[in-house]
Amino acid sequence: MRRGALKAACHIEEGGQARAVEPVSFPLSLGGRGADIAVPGLEAGEPAALLALDRGELFVQPRGTEPVSVGGTPVAVSRWLRDGDELRLLGTRIRVNEREGGLHLRVEHGVSAGSADSALPAGVAGPEAAGEGTLVQPVPFAPKDLQLARPRRALPRPPLAGVVAALALASGGAFVLAAQAVDVQVRPEPERIAVRGWPHLAVGGTRMMLPGRYRVFAERAGYRPLEASIEVTGERGQVVTLALEPLPGRLVLETTPADGVRVAVDGTERGRTPIGTLELPRGDHDVELRAEGYAPFHASVTLAGKGETHTLRAALVPDRAPVSFSSEPPGATVRVDGGEVGRTPLTVDLTSGSRRVEVSLAGHGSASRRIEVVPDRPLAVPPFRLALLPGRVAVTSDPSGAAVRVGGEFRGDTPVELELVARKEHAFQLTRAGHEAAEARVTLDPGESRALALTLTPLVGDVEVTGQPADAEVVVDGEPRGRLGQTLRLTAVPHEVEVRRSGYESHRVTLTPRPGFAQAVRVRLRAAADAGPAERPRVLRTAGGHELRLLPPGRFRMGASRREPGRRANETLREVELARPVYVGASEVTNGQFRRFRPGHASGRFGAHSLEDDARPVVNVTWEDAVSYCNWLSTQEGLAPAYVLRDGKTVGTRPLTGGYRLPTEAEWSRAARYPAEGPLKYAWGDELPVPPRAGNYADESAKSVVGLVLQGYDDGHAVSAPVGSFRPNALGFLDLGGNVAEWVHDAYTIPPADGPVDRDPAGPEAGELHVILGGSYLQGAVTALRLSYRDYGTKPRPDLGFRIARYSE
After folding, report:
1. Which residues of 323-357 are buried (b: 16+ CB within 10 A; e: fewer)?
2. What fold is seen in the domain 391-455?
3. Which of 182, 281, 384, 506 could disulfide-link 327, Cβ–Cβ 3.0 to 4.6 Å?
């Protein structure tokens, strides 16, 4: 049916009987032409609803405030009308019927009980006015002039063709005047687009549209169909922009096994297979598949979206793999994550992942390693080589302190416990100064423990001690040995021989007896009243067990030449003089001595080695800890403390008192570098390599705790050694070049080079850093082995201790 033909073929029937009807204010419009139908109960003015055609389809659109319903359902926006639909407005009912020749509207008004015609509005004829099916002729219609028509007299009817032409011309003009150009844009460009609503014209991408609501329908492959409502406002140049929503991507999973596989996409569980097609947004997605007895499967998929289907085929790998184990010798027990799985050689299925394997065999040391088992990938673990368990031998000697060598390699001093390779003969040799060497051969079974005790025969020499007064006492190494006038048989090691008597100045001499060669000591003691003020005891022993040795006054040079290898910039050369006689500790303060002052102190461990033995030097102490100990010692003996608290910091008194203190840097250097003519470069002399038993440094035995060691040097101590383990220097001082480094009294500074002679220097009055001197068991570099090496610090260290000093006055 053509668009323009419907109006002429549209009939209106009113009431229960067919009768002629004048067009009243209920518009039926098409392209600017229409007929008005009066509705009882409405005032004249704007129309209540619009009936119109779009592409041959009839629709109704409410325009007023009165409710409109179709088939009993309220209508708020445009609605298409079909054959048999019934439209209601107040008391008026309009039925739509398709008949031969066109579309018919049957209009029925509500009628009161008093008169059949009383409900008809004025101007509407009764049933006798016309026969059923009277044709309604079109009348001119302009939307801006719509009103409810008042009853008027019938006018002569012009010819139908002329009326149609006039209406078309008038409505076209009105449309042109009222319509606006609207640019309806849909992105991306749709394949099909339709706009429904008021009649309008499409010219390219622009549409001529009357103000009002419209529905836009658009379609494009790969996008969801668009249905959107737009409002044409009447403003010029209106642009309406709409967007098509892309369809999601479609993911199809084909898995092996096909059933029971848990599916997670981007971390979210989506169910178990079979799972059907998954709709996912366009882009990259992480897919994880898990099934009992299989290794997890991970994949990244990229979906193009727009409804395209992507198929992911995944074959899950069983979560196990065969693993083969072997050992030398075979027959070892294999444990995986603590559970026994068999004996070598062995192949066993293991689940994937990181596994700890331990292999053990009686009489042999166990071996372990961590392996990575990959699903469905056979693994041959490299053979485990199991060494025989060592035997253990506890070596003692009489006297103790003998050096133990096994196969020519130094292994420590007796008593010592050693681990040795089993089922192999080992040659032992024990040596001690002044004694003949003792030898033995030992073969141990795996895991066997044995004791080896050897007696060393002393090498002795004769020393005749004579003099005056005849009843003076002879003391050897601190032990009384009788009166003058006797021959002593002493071992061929250095001994200190003292002759003393009350009222006389003691006489001391250090000598080494020689087997087969007699020696003589002749003494004449001087009465104390005849002794000069400068003659003081060479050794001072305290009630706390400390031994201090007299350091004579003298002038000497400190520092090192710029040409000396290893020299640092803070080792400036300068001239100093010690004018006051001073006593300096023969050895470093031990753990046992320090714990009398601070019982809870712990020197701790270094690596697997303990530093706690009472005979070892105390370490892990600060400078303040060391000087607090010195003040405590002074208090014990009634001496004035050498350190005081000033401005919240501990400093030395000025001048220093006669109480116990740390040796100054100059005193320490004098004791270490000038035991004879000097100055010494190293504690043992001026040349490298380090001679055997020269001191405790970073040696071969310390490889497990320190990186840089002295190649080929073995002092038998991985960490600190008990004090007195090595020979003293010519002045009787121990471990000045090794064992542990030592705090000294001075605050750290770099003194000027070659200035005037510095008399009894004690460093700056105060400072945050303090000087540290001497090498340690952690040091093996040439720089730190030199006696002129200067370090500094504030914090405690496991290789840093101290010794004590005091003026002789």
Report:
1. bebbbeeeebbbbbeeeebeebebeeebebeebeb
2. Immunoglobulin-like (2.60.40)
3. 384
